[in-house]
Amino acid sequence: MDERKERFNRVQLRDSKQQEMLVGSTTPFLKDAWRRFTKNKGALVGLIAIGLIFLFALIGPYINEHAYNVLDKIHINLPPRVPFLEKLGIFNGSEGKYNPYIEKGFTNDYFWFGTDVLGRDLWDRVWMGTRISFYIAMVAVGIDMVIGIGYGMVSGFFGGKVDMVMQRIVEILSGIPNLVVVTLFVLVLKPGMISIILALMITGWISMSRVVRSQVLKMKEHEFILAAKTLGASSFVILFKELLPNIIGQIIVMTMFSIPNAIFYESFLAFIGLGLQPPLASLGVLIADGYRAMITHPHLVIFPTVVLSVLMLSFNLIADGLRDAFDPKMKGF
Amino acid sequence: MTKFIAKRILLSLATLFVILFILFLLLQFMPGSPFNDEKLTAAQQAVLMAKYGLDKPFFIRFWIYLQNVVLRGDFGISYAIKKDMLVSGIVIARLGTSIRIGLQALLLGVSLGVLFGVISGSKRNTWMDSMATVAAVIGVSIPSYVLALVLSFVLGYKFRIFSITYQVDQPLWSSILPTIALSFFVMAQTTRFLRTELIEVLSSDYVKLVDAKGVARPKVILRHGLRNAMISVITILGPLTVNLMTGSLVVERVYGIPGIGSLLVEGIQVNDYNVIIMIAFVYSALYIFVNLIVDILYGVIDPRIRVAKGG
Fold first, then answer.
1. Domains in chain A: how many in total?
2. Which pTM was predicted?
């Protein structure tokens, strides 16, 4: 017996510290994803752009002396004018050869983005609008994420009859184009913040639930789920403690794709006349109001359009970056 | 295969039925009644209600409505846009223009998308690939109405190459700008999708074998790569159709095109519910039809899908 004991060393107990060193330092999943994400130039640019837009949406309305909702009969339809930049010949308040600031004697007034037909400062309105667009998108996506994850996890995890019934429902619902659902829903409920959020929510969860379901179907065959089941874990624990952390990457990517989609639908509704009612104004409302006067006062449509486009582009860039970061196999796609 | 197609058709019909029911249900909740004319007395309103059968129970009304829709294609009369005219007549008269512009955009978008997709998928990580990728990201991000505005402002107003609005007497020439505006998303999405698919197909074993046999590269890409990658591209036709429909609403409005998109917007603004409901139904039917075709085509072209779908 003793001879044998000498010949065999109990590897695991010998020196626990040395054991860990052999394994080497592992990079946590999220840290690894972050490293890949920051290597993606497009995604970084998107992140910075969104950071800037978010910052301006927060503080923009407070850093000039005007207010977004004050009507001003004198200062109407003024083109943008910015101190310093005006010396370079841009943003000097002229529209073609005509400069209303000089003609009307507003030599001391500066409206960075100009003013609209009611004399409201466009700078403030654009950033307030951005704030509202952000808000609507975040709330709508937040809620449909919860519904989508719940639906997808239940459908995928329990399978069988439950899955079949739930998937038939999804199949029929997804047969209805979003356009129709969103438009009619807002029409029936009267345009407003809540009805727009609800409309975006009821169309948004379907794609989320599909992604979650397919991920759950893939994941639930793994051994660690079997292990959890063997140890007597309840379905609830398996779903939220075992499955959810493993599919969180896909969920984040999906969410990032949903946000620009929600922003788009909100602006789309505004454009067809189902937008927010005054005094609230989102970017979409500003564009819809501004495009009518596009030829005489292009600044009314240019600024909200640029902010909206940059916002959408940035979210898409981030989403692309995240998809590559969470799924290295998809790298370069 | 027959079983698969029959199943798909049945599901499509069921979806259409559900949609019609939901639309009819929503119609009941629309604010205001079609007869809320202040000059009408309560008795006159009751007579009108009886005439149009609005006093009957919900399901009987739905049954009558269903019969009208299915047998006669009759969605009721217009209340505001063209008073007392059949909605179906108004919509069908405008359907052609919308579908034509939609198809033009689809054709242009898919052709350019395939071109860019092949370039960027086969010349991966070159400057051409980067350009195509950047263009594609911009294309899927920028809403089509923004593009429509930019195009009509720059090419229509500043340089006066095209007319700013759609001209009925020049249906092709004046539809160029709206077609480009609508096709951008289609192009971008096709590029992105095809690139992904092509990269996957080109790195598969059988393409490596073809390569190893010394087949010329263009032939490898087009005959063996593109052909297989294109099969999957068919699947995005459904989402593309939705996008074209959504885009048509705003693009038709920007250019003043007399299509069903602008009709829907008009209907929304004057609360012409029957028009809204019919166009919503037409959009849904188109979408379902495209999805049905895609599913069947996919099953016909690729036998693997048929097996996977179980029949």
1. 1
2. 0.81
> Which of B246, B254, B272, B291 best tests the A interface by mutation, with the highest count of A CBs <10 A?
B246
Which chain A positions have a beta carbon within 8 Å of B260's beta carbon? none
The partner residue sitting opposite B287, judged by closest CB among A177, A268, A295, is A177
Question: How many inter-chain contacts (A to B, CB under 8 Å) are there?
Answer: 117
Q: Does B52 touch chain A (CB under 8 A)?
A: no
Whether residue A113 is contained in a domain is answered as no
Flag whether residue A175 sits within 8 Å of chain B, measured between CB atoms. Answer: yes
DSSP character string of B120-165: HHHSTTSHHHHHHHHHHHHHHHS-HHHHHHHHIIIIIIIS-SS-SS
Please give the Cα distance from B300 to B295 (Å, whole number): 9
Give CA–CA dist B80/B82, Å, rounded.
6
pLDDT digit string (tens) for B129-172?
888 888 888 888 888 888 888 888 888 777 777 777 777 777 77
Residues B265 and A304: their CA atoms lie apart, in Å, by 22
Is A53 part of any domain? yes
Phi, psi of A81 (to 5 degrees): -145, 125
Q: Residue A56's domain spans which residues?
A: 42-62+126-330
Task: Taking residues A10-20, report their average pLDDT.
Answer: 55
Q: Taking CB atoms and an 8 Å limit, are B242 and A176 in contact across chains? A: no
Measure A23 CA to nearest chain B CA, in Å: 33
Query: Any bridge partners for residue B86, and if so which?
Result: B77
8 Å CB contact of A178 and B19 = no
Contacts of A309 in chain B (CB under 8 A): 141-143, 146
Mean pLDDT of chain B: 82
A141 assigned to some structural domain: yes
Tell me what the mean pLDDT of segment B214-236 comes to: 82
- Coil, strand or helix at B4: helix
Q: How does pLDDT run across A317-327, given as a tens digit for each residue?
A: 888 888 877 76
Which CATH number do you get for residue A229?
1.10.3720.10
Question: Does residue B288 contact residue B15 with C-beta atoms inside 8 Å?
Answer: yes
A180 touches chain B (CB under 8 A): yes
pLDDT above 80 for A91:
no
What ipTM was estimated for this complex? Answer: 0.81
pLDDT at A87 over 70: no
For the ranges A62-71, A244-253, B223-232, B261-270, the lowest mean pLDDT is seen at A62-71
CA dist., res. A221 & res. A209, Å (int):
19
Using a CB–CB cutoff of 8 Å, tell me whether A264 touches chain B: yes
Set of chain B residues whose Cβ sits within 8 Å of the Cβ of A320: 137
Distance of alpha carbon B72 from alpha carbon A272, whole angstroms = 30
Q: B224 vs chain A: nearest CA distance in angstroms?
A: 20
Residues of chain A found within 8 Å of residue B196, distances taken between Cβ atoms: 333
- Whether A268 is in a domain gets the answer yes
Residues of A within 8 A of B157 (CB-CB) are 295
- d(CA B185, nearest CA chain A) in Å: 13
pLDDT band at B33 (very low <50, low <70, confident <90, very high): low
Q: Does the pLDDT of residue A332 top 50, yes or no?
A: no
Check CB contact of B284 with chain A, cutoff 8 Å.
yes
Per residue in B95-106, pLDDT tens? 888 899 999 999
Helix ranges, chain B (H): 2-29, 42-51, 58-67, 87-122, 127-141, 144-151, 176-202, 205-212, 217-219, 227-233, 237-255, 260-270, 273-301, 303-308
CA–CA min distance B126, chain A (Å): 12
Do the Cβ atoms of B253 and A272 come within 8 Å?
Answer: yes
